[in-house]
Every structure is written in C-alpha cells, then in structure tokens.
Design brief:
Elements (H helix, E strand, L loop, with lengths): L5 H15 L4 H10 L1 E5 L8 E4 L2 E6 L3 H10 L11 E5 H10 L4 E5 L7 E3 L5 H9 L3
Parallel strand pairs: 3-5
Antiparallel strand pairs: 1-4, 2-3, 5-6
Helix pairs in contact: 1-2, 2-4
Length: about 140
C-alpha cells in the first residue's frame, strides 16, 4: 500500500466538499498544491497525457484504487503487473503544466466518482486557436 500522507487526504476531503456543494475554491487549490499524487509514466519515464477539448491533461491519482480504476478503464490493468508511476506534489504538477507549450491541465481521479479538473489558464491567442479548431 502506498502512503501519500495526510495532505492527500485533505485534498480528497476538499473534493468531497466541492461535490457536496460547500467547497471553497481557494482551499481546494491549496489542498491540490500540497497533496502528493500518483502520476502514471511511460516506459520512457514521460508523463502519460490524455488530450481532450484541445487541452493536454495530466491524469493523476489520490491513491492506488483510483489509479487502478483508470488503468482498468484503459484496459491496461494487469494483476501483478508493473504499473509505472511517479509520486509528485500538486504544486510541481501545476508548475510543469504551466510550463508546457500547449495548454495543459491536471485531472485528479478522472475515472472515479469524484473527478476534479484543474484547467490551464489560457491566453487570448490560445483561446482563439481552440475556437478555430471548433473546441
């Protein structure tokens, strides 16, 4: 079992509060930045990225179970298999996403019952390009 620490539990609680209708956006963002998260990586040790709506998304997870659900949804879950991941803090992921050339956001527990997305801040030219693409 992977222990991601209490900050990840705080993120799960903030996401739950958001879905219950009394979330606080600033507290949610702060909890995300403080949390340790599982980040799937390729055999080449690159982040696994999914593209949707003209945005690249880093899919990250608050624990083994949501990571396994994501692998299963992608038909990649193998019992006893070597499922590569890195453990990184949310602030490092946000910093990485902000530095990408293309619009990149972070999606937390995307396959589970309480997914949460932290979309990229888009410049006007990026928004115009997405509009041209019909997104």
């Amino acid at each position: 079992m992977i222990d991601l620490g209490s900050d990840t539990a705080v993120l799960r609680d903030e996401i739950e509060a958001f879905y219950a209708g009394f979330g606080n956006a600033a507290a949610l963002k702060e909890a995300f930045r403080a949390a340790a998260l599982l980040v799937p990586i390729t055999a080449e040790r690159q982040f696994t990225v999914s593209k949707f709506g003209g945005v690249a998304w880093l899919c990250v997870f608050t624990g083994e179970e949501p990571f396994a659900e994501w692998l299963s949804a992608r038909a990649q879950l193998q019992p006893g298999g070597n499922h590569r991941y890195q453990t990184l803090s949310g602030w490092r992921l946000a910093e990485y996403a902000d530095g990408c050339a293309e619009p990149t956001g972070v999606a937390v527990d995307i396959v589970g019952p309480r997914p949460m997305a932290f979309p990229p801040a888009l410049a006007d030219d990026q928004l115009e390009e997405l509009r041209k693409q019909g997104v």
